[in-house]
Structures are given as structure tokens and as C-alpha cells.
Amino acid sequence: MTQNLVLTLLGCAVLRISAFSTTYLNYVKPGFRPFLIGAGAVLLVLGLTGLVQASRSRKSSPEAHAHGGARDRSPDGARSRAQGHPPEHGHAHGGPRVAWLMCLPVFAIFLVAPPALGSFAAARSETPPPRDQALSAFTPLRGDGPVDMPIGEFIGRAWDDDSKSLTGRAVKLTGFVVPSKKKGQWYVTRMQIACCAADAFPLKVAVRGIQSPPPDTWVEVTGTWIPQTFGTMPNGVVYPQLSGTDLMRIDTPDEPYE
């Protein structure tokens, strides 16, 4: 009974975050939604089927126990009764109580769904994104206004674009705020995932010229790229810099990762 109830609750939790909300985007990429819905449905069906079977077994068990003594005429059964021991039923009731601990993550999803990775995780990673993630070909930036650009693309152009297409162009970056140890700057950041939140790494751009909002605040920051020499810093990491001209606070997007 316990295992079946855990399966039912787990199936409901998976369906809740994938089929009826966008909470699953805090943990995996959008393409995993059909698989999560399918897995949640299978778990729910298995759990409900097991609960129905367990309920039927409990309803029929009193009758079986009532006639069990009359049917047990084997020598072993007689010997057990003679020694004062009840005959064994040959099956166990219920499941291990420790199995209920499996419900804790389920209740956590129902009550307090863990948020997407934020400044706490990003501030503790000083590893630059892999160079194979950077763009290998850069199209010209068109239009006169600020270019709405993913942070990953901005980093790629700042690192590897020989034509320096960012020079003098206003761009708009969307991300959350991560404090910097260096005075006068902060980071607009977006976590990038290949599969799920477990393999996430931060994409950071240092913002200068605008006062830092509180950590984890989601913002749209507009500015221009600050050309710089990518020399060697003490920690071996150099982040592209943006001279900020405008900032707007926004709500957390449904899809928090790039």
C-alpha cells in the first residue's frame, strides 16, 4: 500500500509541474516536457492500479482468515497450534515505514517548488563557458535601435568576432543580477543548461555605469560593449563588459535558462 501511494503522489507531482504549469522549466529544457508528462501519467496509473488491487485484497482477507484455521490441517499447522504458535500466513502486511521518506521531495514540490538556479549558484562558479559554445559565424547586426541579444551570443561576439560587430552598437541583455567583488560593477547573468539544472553554468557580463539592483533581480539592461584586452586575471577568467545606459526590472521569465 505504501509503495503504491508513493507512486501515485510522485506521478501527481510530475504532472503538476509539467502538464499544468511551467515549473518544470526550472529544472530541465523545454523539449523534455512530453517525456515528463508521459512519465507522470505512467506513475499515476501504476500507483492507482496498485491501490485498487491492495484495497480489494484487504476486503477479501477477513473471509480468508476466518476459514484459514479450518483448512490448515497439515502436520506443520497442527504442530504449530499445539505449541501455541499461530500458523503463518505466508505474506507480509504493508511495507517498510522508511518508504514514506520518499514522499518528502514530493511534498516539497507540492508545497514549495524549488526555484531556478540564481545568484547563489552563479557567484560560486568562475568557470567561463566552453569555447565550443561560442558562435563560429556572426551575422551583421541590423537596425538602429538596441539589439535584443542573448547573453551567450554577446559573449561569443565579444570573444571571437574578428569584425568587432559589437563596437558602438547598443544591445539589450536580459538576466538576473549577481554581485561582483570588484567595486563599480555587477553581473547580468543567465544560466545555460545542456540537459538539466545539474549541468548548468553561468553566462556573465559585467555591467558598469549603473547602480546594482538587489541580487537575483531580473532586469533588462541596455548599453554598449566596452572593448578590452582579454589578458589573464588572477582567477583566469575575463568577463565581457557592458557600459550600461538604461535598466528596467522585469518579472522572472517562464524559461529562466538559455
Largest sheet: 5 strands, mixed, barrel
Low-confidence stretches: 68-72, 89-94
CATH class of the largest domain: Mainly Beta
> How many beta strands in the DSSP annotation?
6
Strand-residue fraction?
15-25%
Number of domains: 2
The H/E string reads HHHHHEHEEEEE
Number of helices: 6
Notes on the protein architecture:
34% of the residues lie in helices and 18% in strands. It is an alpha/beta fold and 258 residues long. The protein has two domains: 2-111, no CATH class; 119-249, Beta Barrel (OB fold (Dihydrolipoamide Acetyltransferase, E2P)). Strands 2-3-4-6-5 form a five-stranded mixed barrel. β2 and β3 (185-192) form a beta hairpin. α1 runs antiparallel to α2 (33-71) and α1 (2-18) runs parallel beside α4 (103-111). The model is unreliable at 68-72 and 89-94 (pLDDT under 50). It comes from Streptosporangium brasiliense. Keywords: Membrane, Transmembrane, Transmembrane helix. The chain crosses the membrane at residues 35-52, 98-123. Residues 60-79 have a biased composition (Basic and acidic residues).
